[in-house]
Write a structure and sequence with these properties.
The complex is a heterodimer of chains A (372) and B (82).
Chain A lengths: L1 H26 L12 E11 L2 E14 L3 E14 L2 H6 L3 E16 L2 E12 L2 E14 L4 E15 L7 E16 L4 E14 L7 E4 L2 E4 L5 E14 L4 E12 L4 E13 L3 E12 L25 E17 L3 E20 L6 E16 L1
Antiparallel strand pairs in A: 1-2, 1-18, 2-3, 3-4, 4-5, 5-6, 6-7, 7-8, 8-9, 9-12, 10-11, 12-13, 13-14, 14-15, 15-16, 16-17, 17-18
Chain B lengths: L4 H18 L29 H12 L19
Classes of the chains: A mainly beta (372), B mainly alpha (82).
Chain lengths: 372, 82
């Protein structure tokens, strides 16, 4: 009950802050050098299938400037999930549930700075998450350098099906810093750093761990702090094509260390087609308290394969087609994306046959995007 | 050689900055890519994120299956999707 009141209180404070900020911004007349984000609309159908999990749904985004001072963005995102993952089929029963996410954000441009304030709420039958964020970007050095910093605060309520007495909470803080630098007339790079801190119920009320072969509820620390740094380089290759490379390093107090590397290539074909291709590699070490089957009693123990040692490789592409373009009025594109990813776990066994577990996943997206 | 050019420029900037600290007489660095020279950089093909919703979906798919998060330019948010 206390957690619900706290979440409602936080949500009200964030809404009040949002209203106050919006009112203040509309009342301020500043000289602007940078432009507001362009008016935009997106309508997406997304689908994920892999490891016994299917998730699909629509998502919508509309962004519109008001009085040429503030740009408002509204989003609605649906995830309809049917879960028969290996955890579920070996220790529980398959289930279906739907997540609804609503987002509202405001962008304001003053001189060479852009301020973005956002709110988001996500609802599932057994999980509610409320999030507020503030981001500032500032152009310096004649517009060749953009500095960004931001903050996110989220508060979650965790419940459990068929156990009305179970209720817990989780709080999240994220602080980020970024720098984008124009290097030449064709190349730019960015560096982003983010510190993440979580506190509260960070486990799953449904998942079980194995200790001496017996199933026990997982026990996870109630705090976690992580650091991530990402470098990106984007270059125009001169033949209506471009490439990008990226690398991210992540480490946290649960002793997970992760490397992510990605490379992509994009190219225009004719007047109306744009094709993108990308490859991504990810690997991580497991958490200190992760065990496939613990052989000693410890304070914390988990068999969450997201915290195990594993790697994955993904290969994907996107195709965009200009459906209609009226210069100065609007621009409408039809887009399709696909990614195939292969997961290989190093210390998570399939309890059905004792082999190391692995699976492949497919992500499909079809969407319309319009600027106006 | 073209691919190495950004690295050469970055190294040059770093050296110039270091030199500037040690020798105040070295001229201050001026922006070397003028606004009218940024047409290629403004092309949609060069954007780090072209469309918000599909990128957010990819990010979400990865966040709920991998242990690492953050520094991707997306605000994220909680959900019980594990």
């Amino acid at each position: 009950m206390a957690a619900t009141k706290a979440a409602i209180g936080l949500w009200r404070r964030l809404l009040a802050l949002f209203g106050g900020l919006l009112g203040g911004l509309l009342g301020v007349a500043g000289a602007r050098a940078a432009d507001l984000p362009e008016n935009k609309a997106e309508a997406l159908i997304h689908s994920y299938s892999g490891g016994g999990v299917n998730a699909y749904g629509p998502a919508f985004l509309v962004r519109k400037s008001i009085f040429d001072k503030v740009s408002l963005t509204g989003t609605y995102y649906v995830d309809a999930v049917s879960n028969a993952s290996i955890d579920v089929v070996t220790t529980a029963s398959p289930y279906k549930e739907t997540r609804h996410e609503f987002g509202l954000s405001a962008d304001y441009v003053y001189r060479d700075a852009q301020i973005t304030f956002g709110l988001m709420t996500s609802h599932e039958p057994d999980y509610v998450a409320n999030t507020g964020s503030l981001d500032v970007t500032q152009e310096v050095f004649g517009g060749m350098t953009t500095i960004a910093f931001g903050f996110t605060r989220a508060s979650d309520t965790v419940k459990k099906h068929n156990e009305p007495d179970f209720k817990d909470s989780a709080d999240h803080w994220q602080y980020r810093l970024g720098l984008t630098q124009i290097l030449t007339t064709r190349w730019l790079m960015s560096v982003n750093f983010e510190a993440l801190s979580d506190e509260g119920y960070l486990a799953s009320p449904y998942r079980v761990a194995r200790v001496f072969g017996a199933a026990v509820p997982e026990r996870t620390p109630r705090t976690r702090t992580g650091r991530a740094v990402k470098l990106r380089l984007v270059g125009d290759l001169g033949n209506r094509d471009a490439m990008h490379v990226g690398y991210r390093y992540f480490t946290d107090t649960w002793d997970i260390r992760a490397h992510t590397a990605e490379i992509g290539y994009s190219r225009y074909f004719g007047e109306n087609w744009l094709a993108d291709s990308f490859f991504r590699y990810y690997s991580q070490t497991g958490a200190l308290f992760y065990s496939d089957n613990a052989t000693s009693e410890t304070l914390y123990v988990s068999r969450n394969r997201q915290l195990s040692t594993f790697n994955n490789m993904g290969l994907g592409g996107r195709l965009s087609y200009n459906l209609r373009r009226v210069p100065g009025r609007y621009d409408l594109k039809l887009n399709g994306s696909y990614e195939y990813t292969r997961f290989k776990f190093k210390d998570f066994t399939d309890l059905r046959d004792g082999s190391l577990y692995g699976y492949a996943s497919n992500v499909v997206q079809v969407y319309l995007s319009a600027t106006y | 050689m073209t691919a190495l050019r950004p690295l050469v420029v970055a190294a040059g900037v770093a050296l110039s900055l270091l030199g500037g600290c040690a020798m105040p007489t070295v001229p201050t660095i001026q922006p070397w890519v003028k606004p009218y020279e940024r047409e290629r950089l403004g092309d949609p093909i060069m954007k780090l994120s072209r469309d918000a919703l599909p990128d957010k979906h990819f990010e979400h798919v990865r966040d709920v299956r991998e242990g690492a998060r953050g520094a991707t330019g997306f605000q994220g948010g909680g959900c019980g999707c594990n």
